[in-house]
Specification:
There is one protein chain. The chain is about 50% helix and about 15% strand. With about 400 residues, the protein is α+β, with helices and mostly antiparallel strands. The longest helix is centred in the middle third of the chain and has 37 residues, at about 235-275. It is globular.
């Protein structure tokens, strides 16, 4: 697995190229054949999970010291990108495993890391992230879920909404208020287990896209957990949550890249085969211009995403902040906007066929939309960028 990035040029190294080839082969052989059914039936992509676990690609970011592959940020981006190219729902397995577990990696005690990262690395458990609530979306600091100290335990009560892979994941990073008077500085982070008494889940949301990735509410009803399951010190949870998003917004950009690449690849093949007026429609200038714009936007998004991944790796290595907040937000925002445009154009290039479920581009267009919304809407990303101009 790749372990370093060319920070000056933000380009993949040879080992990244080899990783891409292997993940693409796996995705096309083991994940792509089930993608349409996963979407149509709105079912969890179990085949993808099994294939990713069998090839140690389900949580490549986990450090080697805890049994993981120790992949750098760019390698993680490439894995997510290549899986998303064939199935966006399946790409949320490695993406959300990183999102859910990164707070533990960034701020958790050594005991927490050993306890929860090792099963994640082995594929025995998945990890989800619980920040949003019914009345606390973009204003995450306005959350109402509470954690009250009771001796050597904390008791958690509240509702978390829009939780990806809820009900499938064994572990959940949960943000909860420990001191209501301090707003964001009164929020702490905890690891909650699916088996903890008082944990339950709402019905799966009926979504426009990423139908194979369950999105559910998580209910915490007097959930009593040991105090040593707190991630970091009391009151540091919100800061950990924001640091996490600086890194993981890049994985949403990676997902957007993959979806867009899949749509462009399919549309490019289609226009070379489809004939009108006696020749392939790829020979018409109007079609060529559309394809050129799609490819240009995709490559610009990819370069920005890889640059952000390089900064993420530098920050993880302790080399400074490196404008990561700006670049993470910019990559997520630009790549997701580009993916929405590219997939919409792909549907247009297929004409009436593109509008039917017999062809994958309409699914890709539906899947692309969520990348503009979750882990912070693109309107919020622009606020983040404006506040953190390099």
């Amino acid at each position: 697995m790749a372990s370093s990035v060319d920070f000056d040029l933000y380009r993949p190294l040879e080992e990244h190229d080899m990783l891409r080839e292997s993940v693409r082969s796996l995705a096309e052989a083991k994940i792509a054949p089930h993608a349409a059914a996963v979407d149509e039936e709105a079912r969890f992509p179990q085949e993808a999970l099994e294939a990713l676990v069998a090839n140690d690609l389900h949580a490549v970011h986990v450090p080697e010291s805890y049994g993981g592959a120790g992949a750098d940020a760019l390698a993680t981006v490439i894995v997510i990108e290549e899986v998303a190219r064939v199935c966006a729902s399946s790409s949320l397995i490695p993406a959300v495993n990183k999102l859910g577990s990164l707070p533990v990696i960034l701020s958790g005690s050594e005991e927490l890391k050993k306890k929860y990262l090792a099963p994640l690395a082995k594929g025995d458990a998945m990890f989800s992230y619980c920040l949003s609530e019914p009345d606390a979306g973009s204003d995450a600091a306005g959350m109402k879920t509470k954690a009250v100290r009771d001796g050597d335990h904390y008791v958690l009560n509240g509702v978390k909404r829009w939780i990806t892979n809820a009900g499938v994941s064994e572990y959940y990073t949960v943000m909860a208020v420990t001191d209501p008077d301090k707003r964001s500085k009164g929020i702490s982070a905890f690891v909650v287990e699916k088996s903890d008494e008082g944990v339950s889940f709402g019905a799966p949301e009926k979504k426009l896209g990423i139908k194979g990735s369950p999105t559910r509410e998580v209910y915490l009803d007097n959930v009593r957990i040991p105090a040593d399951r707190m991630i970091g010190a009391e009151g540091t949870g919100f800061a950990t949550a924001m640091k996490t998003l600086d890194h993981t917004r890049i994985t949403i950009a990676a997902q957007a890249l993959g979806i867009a690449q899949g749509a462009l690849d399919y549309a490019k093949g289609y226009v070379q085969e489809r004939k009108q007026f006696g020749k392939p429609i790829a020979d018409f200038q109007g079609i060529q211009f559309m394809l050129a714009d799609m490819a240009m936007k995709l490559e610009a998004a990819r370069q920005l995403t890889y640059a952000a991944a390089a900064r993420s790796e530098r920050v993880a290595a302790g080399a400074g902040k490196e404008d990561l907040t700006f670049f993470g937000a910019a990559a997520k925002c630009y790549a997701s906007d580009a993916a929405m445009e590219i997939t919409t154009d792909a549907v247009q290039l297929l004409g009436g066929y593109g509008y039917t479920r017999d062809y994958p581009v309409e699914r890709m267009m539906r899947d692309a939309k969520i990348t503009q919304i979750y882990e912070g809407t693109n309107q919020v990303q622009r606020i983040v960028m404006a506040r953190n101009l390099p």
